[in-house]
Design goal:
Shape: globular
Number of helices: 14
Structural class: alpha+beta
Radius of gyration: 26 Å
Helix content: 25-40%
Strand order of the largest sheet: 4-3-2-1-5-6-7
Number of strands: 16
Order of helices and strands: EHEEEHEEEHHHEEEHEHEEHEHHHEEHHH
Distance between the termini: 54 Å
Strand content: 15-25%
Length: 473
């Protein structure tokens, strides 16, 4: 049974066959009776999702390996199968065995005899009802065991940045790992979330470093991406400044520190900001116990925070307009990358409930529709406003919907290391950085700004990020 599949190296036919210029497709087994496979289709700037049944997956792979994509890597419980296509469309199949984990699933159902209290007539030591119950329980137990075995195998086969079996002090201290480096079963979702976030961060690191002029070419990374000895103008490089707004218990804050310092060997200074004093004290104590010197935690309101200009701003589940204050701070301070997972978009929701636009009445009539639409509308405005300020924006699925419904990430990367100012957006004579960007960039910026304006105007709504950044909204 296929547990995962990744298709890469698209051919010239990929758009004609699949409808878009996909760069890769990642498929994994998630379980479920109807569509047990979840697929992510990635273009250069977007990702699309689809569910497959077993038959649909097999048909998709058969049609696209060698035609849409030159490479495909499949994993089963015990094998890794690689398909390689040449220019003539000939496909070569390579297969290798995977190490067996052995042992029974931890939660495999045990079969026990069912004995009724009322002394009813028995058939072979069991009542007919009990026998039927036992058969159903056994079938359910076998299905559950198979599902959990596949899930565990998938987790263990994935090429995580932080691998299970590696002793990671902060994960051990936070209860995600045992002292031996084994991931606690109940914390696997958190373990996957941490790794997913690091993957998304790793994607933008080269551009961030280039924007800081720390790295002039790939050779500066060294063969093992070790930047600890990299120099900037003959001087040791300045640490990357990371700002985590709404850091909470700081799983991701500590993960970023570990990833940059221990894995990538990139000097960094990380600040976590949160409103809760007890949480800030707990995180500060943990950093002290772990001997981490390049982290500090600040108790305060995101809206009132002032500090060093950050290279990267992180905001995970900052509630409602707290996300807007974090994004505005990032834009105004010229952050080179932003990774934001918004939460609780209440501001626009409250305004849509009073909308007099009859055209949208069916969409706004039911609370659940209005809640979901207002969240999408809020994040769409945020994305457009970031693009207007010179950022390349992607909206990605952070983690599975089964983990949390608040799973969309806005990932923004400053284009060319320069941001568009208000002069370029308003149409005034550009100066400085804006003039270097050219009239085309300024016109595109105004178009992004106008589209956000039009969307809000259609519903008679205001939005905090639009107010904070100005532009007449």
């Amino acid at each position: 049974m296929i547990l995962s599949a990744t298709l890469s190296k698209p051919t010239s036919q990929v758009e004609a066959i699949l409808g878009k210029k996909y760069e890769r497709v990642k498929i994994r087994f998630k379980g479920g009776p109807v569509s047990p496979y979840f697929a992510e289709f990635f273009t250069q700037t977007q990702s699309f999702h689809k569910n497959f049944s077993q038959a649909e997956l097999e048909e998709f792979l058969q049609k696209n390996i060698g035609r849409s994509f030159k490479n495909c890597v499949e994993r089963t419980e015990d094998k890794e199968i690689t398909f390689l296509a040449n220019k003539r469309g000939e496909v070569k199949r390579l297969e290798k065995a995977l190490a067996k984990t052995g042992g029974k699933p931890k939660n495999a159902a045990a079969q026990t005899d069912f004995k009724p209290k009322n002394g009813a007539a028995q058939t072979g030591g069991k009542t007919k009802a009990a026998a039927a119950f036992g058969e159903k329980a056994a079938l359910f137990g076998a299905a559950a065991s198979a599902f959990n075995a596949h899930k565990v195998a998938l987790n263990r086969s994935k090429n995580y940045i932080i691998q299970e079996g590696t002793q990671v002090p902060f994960l051990q201290a936070l209860g995600v790992m045992t002292d031996a480096g084994k991931v606690v079963a109940a914390k696997y979702d958190k373990f996957r979330q941490v790794n997913r976030f690091l993957e998304l961060l790793d994607d933008v690191l080269p551009a961030v470093l280039n924007a800081r002029s720390q790295v002039q070419d790939c050779a500066a990374f060294g063969a093992d991406n070790n930047l600890s000895q990299a120099q900037e103008g003959g001087r040791p490089i300045e640490p990357l400044q990371i700002l985590d707004f709404g850091s909470g218990k700081s799983y991701l804050t500590f993960a970023v520190q570990y990833f940059l310092e221990s894995v990538k060997k990139i000097p960094c200074q990380i600040t976590g900001v949160d409103l809760k004093e007890d949480v800030i004290k707990s995180c500060s104590d943990l950093a002290a116990r772990l001997g981490v010197k390049n982290m500090n935690f600040v108790c305060g309101d995101i809206a009132k925070y002032s500090g060093k200009n950050p290279d990267i701003v992180i905001t995970l589940h900052a509630c409602d307009i707290a996300t807007d204050y974090a994004l505005a701070f990032a834009v105004e301070r010229g952050a080179k990358a932003i990774l934001s997972v918004p939460c609780c978009q209440k501001e626009v929701n409250a305004q849509l409930g009073k909308s007099s636009n009859a055209l949208f009445a069916p969409l706004l009539k039911h609370g659940i529709f209005r809640e979901r639409f207002s969240a999408l509308m809020t994040d769409a405005v945020r994305a457009q406003l970031l693009e207007a300020r010179g950022y390349k924006v992607q909206v990605l699925e952070f983690i599975d919907m089964e983990g949390t419904p608040k799973n969309l990430m806005i990932r923004a990367l400053l284009k060319g290391g320069a941001r568009l100012g208000q002069e370029a957006i308003s149409g005034a004579a550009p100066s400085g950085k804006e003039s270097a960007l050219g009239g085309g960039a300024a016109a595109q910026s105004r178009a992004f700004e106008q589209s956000a304006r039009d969307l809000l105007t259609a519903f008679g709504a205001r939005q905090k990020l639009a107010d904070l950044l100005g532009g007449g909204l």
